[in-house]
Amino acid sequence: MDRGTVGSAQSGRLLVEVREEGSSAVVTPVGELDHHTADLLREPLEECLTKGFSRLVVDCSRLEFCDSTGLNVLLGARLKAEAAGGGVHLAGMQPVVARVFEITGAEAVFTVHDSLVDALSDGTAGSG
Prior knowledge:
With 128 residues, the chain is an alpha/beta fold. It contains 4 helices and 7 strands; from the N terminus they run E-E-E-H-E-E-H-E-H-E-H.
């Protein structure tokens, strides 16, 4: 029933859904992002960048866990998106995931939104 879904990848612990939302690619990891599942997120992020989406919105509302490997995947995508004139926006982080970003200081280098709606409306505002 995911009419907007243009791709997905799955392992036992992580499902990644990708859809286009205006000029943004929305990537939704569901489950646990760690050493064993990081490539399942890395590949769709890189594919979105290859397709010309420089603004990536990662909907973290269903992400239950993120370790340093997962964080590195997001940081790598951020560098590539910024090189293409865009960025990576994180939306709806659960407290356990947000804590990883706080502890490492990574929250300072990402644009973090309370919800996916906020992240998407920020992109249509044309501010920049």
